[in-house]
Specification:
Elements (H helix, E strand, L loop, with lengths): L2 H18 L7 E13 L9 E13 L6 E16 L2 E18 L5 E16 L4 E15 L7 E19 L2 E21 L1
Antiparallel strand pairs: 1-2, 1-8, 2-3, 3-4, 4-5, 5-6, 6-7, 7-8
Length: about 190
């Protein structure tokens, strides 16, 4: 079963959970945006300069009575340099998939979350050509989310991201590949609950 067929099954399952649970009294909708920008500028040396970005947007439904467990979707996007035979190539990727979040500590100060990117799409850019890659990904986060007002929280997270690619397309020709990409980030963000 491919990723495209699993997506509607997940949507139907999520709707069923929302309908079967008593959500009227304590359902909370949460929107979260996080990101980071890393820059390494080198002047007068043989090593190239580079910049890397990573961002996450999530929308979650908190459906348990203590508002600790949330289900939803995450959109992840990144751009990162890759060194290859003395040149700097670039990998630009994005994915969308289900996410699960568990809040703990006093007033949900701490949280753990996991996201699964069902279909990662990436462009591998070299000085001479562009490859299109597809695969899957996992994102794990530990976050501190202090409250700053009634509906707003700030977010400071440590994130581990892992994606792996199984297919590439070059000049309309698709072939199999086996490429893995891992990264660890510190993310800053905002959370809005209503």
């Amino acid at each position: 079963m491919d990723c495209g067929r699993r997506f509607p099954i997940f949507i139907l399952s999520l709707v069923a959970v929302l309908l079967l649970c008593e959500t009227k009294a304590y359902a909370v909708l949460e929107f979260q945006v996080e990101g980071t920008y890393l820059s390494d500028l080198v002047s007068g040396a043989k090593q190239p300069s580079y910049a890397s970005t990573f961002g996450v947007s999530k929308i979650l439904f908190t459906i348990d009575s203590e508002r600790r467990l949330g289900f939803g979707f995450a959109y992840i996007g990144y751009s990162t340099p890759w060194m290859n035979n003395g040149t700097t190539d670039t990998l630009n990727g994005y994915d969308l998939g289900p996410t699960l979040k568990f809040d703990f500590c006093h007033k949900g100060l701490c949280s753990l979350s996991a996201s699964y990117g069902m279909l990662v799409k990436a462009a591998y850019l070299t000085p001479t050509l562009t490859d299109s890659w597809t695969g899957q990904s996992y994102l794990y986060e530990f976050s501190l989310q202090p409250e700053i007002s009634d509906h707003w929280r700030t977010s400071i997270s440590v994130a581990y991201y892992y994606d792996f690619f199984t297919s590439q397309t070059v000049s309309n020709t698709t072939s199999g590949i086996s490429v893995q990409h891992t990264a660890t980030y510190t993310l800053l963000g905002l959370v809005y609950e209503w």
